[in-house]
Design goal:
Order of helices and strands: HEEHHHEEEEHHEHHEEHEHEH
Number of helices: 11
């Protein structure tokens, strides 16, 4: 006797064929989280053939080098609580069923990373039982890279490639607040290219730009990834050093000064030395609750001013700024900037 095909089976067969021909990369898991559909678009996106994953739980290998949940797994297991630990950006549908996320995926078969926008949702039968989870994927790599490039452009100094003043001010606010919470030291270096106006007047603005690029390159290479090196304005630079005691900051400043000396960028203007040098002021604070970050900037600024007016080509601590003035006849300390407390 010939078996009659149920309408539900016909519908299921039609749905599977439809998914296979979708231009959107799609795969489907059953309630046991085994792959039952891996469409052609998903093969093209991942480089992984359907035959290699159908009937297995190895779908993660298409996206990552180490075993971890994909978004469809979280839906199948009802583990939306794990979203924040697996995806930097995510949303949960208003009904709490479907999930959306974005993530950089390693794509081991392709050998290159892709930034994917991912949606996963459950399919239930008439009785509310889970029968499948569908995950769809969109390649957002080009858009993400363009977005990152625009962000970098907005936060970088166009001449030196260092952080710009706006980006530095944001970093200072963040690191100051963190240092207040953790009671850790925060150091600041303010750096000035000695006699830079004279350099520009003698060599021209093009050479002046080259000089600033050279200083910027030395700064980019000479500090930790956690430090924020920035062009503070004109020929003045700044370096923010989180979790750095004063002695560590002074050593870093001296290394920077010596690095510029080793470049031997010819100066030669009257009243200047034969080569370009730096004056650096260093200040360190462990922020108290009632202190403002302006205090750190003001103390580093005083130290820089003292370094410039006590001979240049030197590193000076904020703690020693007043002593430097006392040894330099006719030069008075700079008036401290007004400091607000929060």
């Amino acid at each position: 006797m010939q078996r009659t095909t149920k309408p539900s089976e016909v519908a299921q067969s039609y749905a599977v064929r439809l998914m296979q021909h979708l231009v959107v990369p799609t795969f489907v898991l059953n309630p046991q989280r085994e792959v039952v559909v891996w469409n052609r678009a998903c093969e093209r996106l991942t480089g992984v053939a359907a035959a290699d994953v159908i009937g297995t739980k190895k779908h993660w290998r298409a996206f990552y080098t180490e075993k971890r949940f994909c978004l469809a797994d979280l839906v199948a297991n009802e583990r939306s609580d794990l979203l924040s630990s697996l995806y930097p950006e995510f949303t949960v549908s208003t009904h709490g069923l479907g999930l959306s996320a974005e993530n950089w995926c390693v794509m081991p078969k392709l050998g290159n990373q892709l930034y994917l926008a991912i949606d996963a949702g459950p399919i239930h039968d008439e009785d509310g039982r889970l029968i499948a989870v569908v995950e769809t994927l969109r390649d957002m790599t080009d858009q993400k890279r363009a977005e990152s490039a625009l962000k970098a452009l907005a936060s970088s100094d166009g001449l030196t490639g260092l952080a710009n003043r706006r980006s530095f001010d944001q970093a200072l606010a963040i690191e100051w607040a963190r240092a207040q919470r953790t009671r850790s030291p925060l150091s600041l270096l303010l750096v000035d290219v000695d006699h830079f106006k004279l350099y520009n007047d003698l060599h021209g603005h093009q050479k002046g730009d080259d000089c600033l690029r050279g200083v910027g390159a030395a700064m980019a290479a000479g500090f930790r990834p956690a430090d924020v090196a920035a062009r503070y304005g004109g020929e003045e630079f700044a370096v923010l050093m989180p979790d750095s005691a004063h002695g560590i900051a002074l050593d870093a400043a001296e290394r920077l000064r010596e690095a510029i000396c080793r470049l031997r960028l010819a100066h030669g203007a009257a009243a200047a030395g034969s080569h370009v040098t730096l004056s650096i002021g260093v200040a360190t604070e462990v922020p108290a609750e009632d202190m403002s970050s302006e205090l750190l900037v003001a103390r580093a600024d005083q130290a820089l001013y003292a370094a410039k007016h006590s001979g240049r080509d030197r590193v000076l601590s904020a703690d020693n700024a007043l002593a430097a003035f006392s040894c330099t006849p006719g030069v008075a300390p700079r008036a401290a900037r007004k400091v607000r407390t929060r």
